[in-house]
Amino acid sequence: MLTQEYEHARFDLCVLLGRLARRPVFATFQGGIEPHSRLERPIRPFTIRACAGVVIASGVERERVRRAYRLPPDRIAAIPNAIDVAGYQPTERSTARRLLGIGDATRVAEWHGRVEVHRKGLDVLLDAWAILCNQRPLEELLLLLVGTGRDAAELRRRIDALGLDSIRWRDEYVSDRAELSLYLSAADVYVLASRHEGFPVAPIEAMAAGLPVVCTDAPGVADILDGELSGGIVVPREDPRALAETLGGLLEDGQRRTEMALRARKRAADRYSLESVGAQLRDCFFPVSTHGRTSPDQRFRGFP
């Protein structure tokens, strides 16, 4: 059994069901870092140590779980989230821009995701964009925002307060990959300004589409990027000036963007494709022993 998010009551129930059915239970990390209710707190240490293992992409979260629950390292699998890299085939740039009504000379930064202003650092991103536009008043710049969420009204208020005509926001969820790829294909760079992430997928989607990325050092980002050779640049959180400087420098350097884009696409294919992650999950759930692959029944764990 595989359950999404171990810091949730459904995980405890799945472990109980696994015990009754004598089946191993695994869980994944989706961003939660503490129990949702008081009732879960005394139960969680027992259930998390009784599961067969947890799949955690974020290095910060792996260390938290190890320390908080005294979980042995061999029960923690460092496996990233997967995306269908092959499905992100960029549209020709001029075609994408023509379809979206964007000029060829415009320098475009793109963000997409769930609109949660504080968690996603959208206030920092807007402040950085305002700094960038003030520093380059004669340049054609555009910030593309794609997504919606519980803070949509606050984001609209902040955009209106800036009074910039260089921000375009599509206030709705875009789940169609071809449609999202169109926005990514029209951009020069992807930007993430989050304060907190579990393991961010949006930058990997951008990398798969052949975009260099600029990200803040939110938890989970370091597991994706380790310098320009990985196709991205990491800047400090809560620092709009650093974000503006890095973003501006990359937007004006076409050769650097091209080189980083190639590295970004390769890293996405090597590390986050369905084939790569699928093989890691197979080896986690059905590890190879001297007698062949272990069956699920052999991975069963009861309560300690």
Label this structure with key terms.
Rossmann fold; 6-stranded parallel beta sheet; single chain; 4-stranded parallel beta sheet; 14% strand; 12 strands; 41% helix; 11 helices
Can you write the helix and strand succession as a string? EHEHEHEHEHEHEHEHEEHHHEE
Which CATH architecture of the largest domain would you pick?
A: 3-Layer(aba) Sandwich
Number of strands: 12
Q: With helices defined by DSSP (H or I, 4 residues minimum), what is the helix count?
A: 11
The largest sheet, given as strand count, sense and whether it forms a barrel, is: 6 strands, parallel
Topology:
Layout lengths: L1 E3 L4 H13 L4 E3 L15 H7 L2 E3 L3 H11 L6 E2 L15 H8 L6 E6 L9 H14 L5 E6 L5 H11 L4 E4 L6 H10 L2 E4 L9 H7 L4 E4 L15 E4 L4 H12 L2 H19 L1 H12 L2 E2 L2 E2 L11
Parallel strand pairs: 1-2, 2-3, 3-4, 5-6, 5-8, 6-7, 8-9, 9-10
Antiparallel strand pairs: 11-12
Helix pairs in contact: 1-2, 4-7, 5-6, 5-9, 8-10, 10-11
